[in-house]
Amino acid sequence: MELKQIFANEITSHLNDMLELEEAQKLIEKPKYEEQGDLAFPCFTLAKLARKAPTVIATELASKLQHPLFEKVVADGPYVNCFLNKETVSKETLQTIVRSESNYGTLTFGKDKTIVIDFSSPNIAKPFSMGHLRSTVIGNSLAKIVEKCGFTAVSVNHLGDWGTQFGKLIVAYQLWGDAAQVQADPIKELLALYVKFHAEAEHTPTLEDDARLWFKKLEEGDVEALKLWKWFRDESLQEFSKIYDLLGVSFDSYQGEAFYNDKMDLTIDMLTKKQLLTSSEGAEVVDLQEFDLPPCLIKKSDGATLYATRDLTAALYRQQQYNFEKTLYVVGQEQSLHFKQVFLVLEKAGFEWAKELIHIPFGFILKDGKKMSTRKGKIVLLEEVITEAVELAEKNIEMKNPMLANKAEIAKMVGVGAIIFHDLKNERQNNVEFSLEEMLKFEGTTGPYVQYTHARACSILRKADHTVVTDNVKGLNDPFGWTVLKLLMEFPNVIERSFNLYEPSQIAKYLIDLSQEFNKYYSRVKILIQDEQLDSRLALVQSVTIVLEEGLRLLGLQAPKEM
Length: 563
Ligand code: ARG
Known about the structure:
Elements: H1 3-12, H2 21-27, E1 39-42, H3 44-50, H4 54-64, E2 70-76, E3 79-84, H5 86-100, E4 114-118, H6 130-148, E5 152-156, H7 165-176, H8 179-184, H9 186-203, H10 206-219, H11 223-247, H12 264-273, E6 277-280, E7 283-286, E8 296-299, H13 307-322, E9 326-330, H14 336-348, E10 357-360, E11 365-367, E12 370-371, H15 382-400, H16 407-424, E13 432-433, H17 436-439, H18 447-464, H19 479-501, H20 504-524, H21 534-555
Parallel strand pairs: 4-5, 4-9, 9-10, 11-13
Antiparallel strand pairs: 1-3, 2-3, 6-7, 7-8, 11-12
């Protein structure tokens, strides 16, 4: 039941096709004050069309509108204000939510369509950066939102496992590496080798030539080069999967840059056939001057391919493989130019679907206002950060609820949830200030606050020890419950909006609002008294648990029943 739609339907049925249903629906607003009703329709557009005063139209319309779900409809200046029939609306809504359980809010407009989400995508042999953390958290949530809208989501980890740096790494390992040390702490050791390579290359420039040579060998399938590369990759992936396990994130595909090694020739042939390649100082490029952009580099003068060549090939491959409706690239804003170039090259090559490739940029993670860097020594080890969050959460729980069973497990849900929620609660383009203390607060706009509210609602249901009989659910008769109910009705719209904007923050903000309103309700209304409204109040509490849990799931958080 979409109330806006019902209201819009009623309005347009009295307008002799003057306004389309969809347009009318878009015009409907929430009145500024609660006393003005639940829905408002401004008559300015109609006034222009009918050449009448908006107040006259509002009065005329208001007198005609009737529906069992409306208590009354009144004109308020140029607005038609609708007061919903709380009794009927709340009864129907609560029954729907309790019956649908986690399916409440599920949408169908994505049915039979696929969306590819390219996210996380760390670089092999390098630390998992804060930027990769953001990409992982945002991408994982977008994948869940996409699915909730009915699409098939394909999560792709486009690993940075190819490129000239692997030539450097192989050379460095052969000169200074130690197998046991790499085994013991792969990322740290490989990074150290990489850093050493650059330091040494300063005074021994021939090292750069060796590195180019080894990457060339790698591209040509040399056995020794491949063996080392594969080993670096496996060890790194094992490290990364620790982080994915902690965060509860998984992928449908780990086809990264290396996967496209033997497919790039086809891309280059295609560009050649379409006469898009030009040479520039020995390199092959696609000119993008007409868009005021620098050329997109496809092949270096030594024949080596590039990041862009692999992204072009990946897009072509995925279109064939998945026939996607869209691909979302969840990558930091510093790569905007790269994606603009790649998308435009595909457009120039005549692929219609290139318009459906979308870069989803995001801001930086800051510490005390400064960018957190992974360069030289200053590595922030993500695994340690997560572990620290979990430990802090455990301390909080110890203080609040020392008797809690399986504390460690719940501390993990809370600590990890705190990090994820903190990342997602602001619009993604904003920078995020990283403060463990801030994100772990049980009060305020945090993940633990929402989780705590959910657990509190669950505990009311446990105490009630009474299964809600949906047929006994009546309309609510108190204003606090009504406010909560109206928010519950918004959930499907919030999901759709978060999809349209590619903004998990829409859901995060909504969960905070719902938690706050529910906590008000809880402090002002006696829920567990025995009267004819008991089933309705419990249905409301149960609906809140359903929506909070499902909303948290869409962000990638778990919702413990106790904490
Ligand atoms: N590995 C890259 C980096 O860390 C991110 C890859 C993003 N995805 C892509 N299709 N280019 O910068």
